[in-house]
């Protein structure tokens, strides 16, 4: 692995020391070359550590830390499914509208007027001056 890293550093140094890459025409080509070079070396290093491919992590869903996160995973998957063909701002606006509607429904208390009741911590506190 160390020799692969050394070879990567040598090739990057050679790329920057070659004056043929310095012109305006080749500046973007050099960036593309370096991206491909890094991608190649990253895959070579991965192959060194995991010859059969990277192993999938086993998640213990009975662990409280992961169990709490399970709801967020489901919510994220739902949002990605709803986002097909929409901009992210549209998805965020839809989610905000659902949250606002839920707040109205929760504070309605059967009065039917649909007004949001102020919570105790939203109330202004009168001050004696």
Short description:
By secondary structure, the protein is mostly helical.
Task: Describe the secondary-structure layout.
Elements: H1 2-17, H2 24-49, H3 64-82, H4 88-107
Helix pairs in contact: 1-2
Describe the model:
The protein has 129 residues and is mainly alpha-helical. Helix content is 63%, strand content 0%. Helix 1 (2-17) runs antiparallel to helix 2 (24-49). The longest helix has 26 residues, at 24-49. The protein is extended, with a radius of gyration of 28 Å. The protein starts with a helix and ends in a 22-residue tail after the last helix.
Helix content: 55-70%
Instruction: Tell me the overall shape.
Output: extended
Our estimate of the beta-strand percent is under 5%
Largest sheet: none
What is the rounded distance between the termini? 73 Å
Determine the mean pLDDT: 78
Tell me the series of helices and strands, N- to C-terminal.
HHHH
Q: Low-confidence parts lasting 5 or more residues at pLDDT below 50?
A: none
Structural class: mainly alpha
Total helical segments: 4
C-alpha Rg (nearest Å): 28 Å
């Amino acid at each position: 692995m160390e020799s692969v890293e050394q070879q990567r550093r040598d090739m990057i140094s050679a790329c920057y020391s070659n004056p043929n890459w310095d012109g305006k025409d080749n500046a973007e080509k050099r960036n593309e070359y370096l991206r491909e070079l890094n991608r190649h070396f990253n895959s070579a290093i991965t192959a060194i550590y995991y010859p059969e491919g990277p192993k999938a992590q086993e998640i213990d869903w009975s662990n409280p830390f992961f169990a709490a996160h399970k709801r967020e995973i489901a919510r994220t998957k739902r949002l990605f499914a709803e986002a097909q063909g929409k901009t992210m701002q549209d998805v965020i606006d839809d989610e905000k509208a659902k949250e606002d509607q839920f707040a109205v429904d929760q504070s309605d208390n059967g009065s039917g007027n649909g007004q949001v009741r102020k919570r105790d911590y939203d109330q202004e506190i009168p001050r004696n001056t």
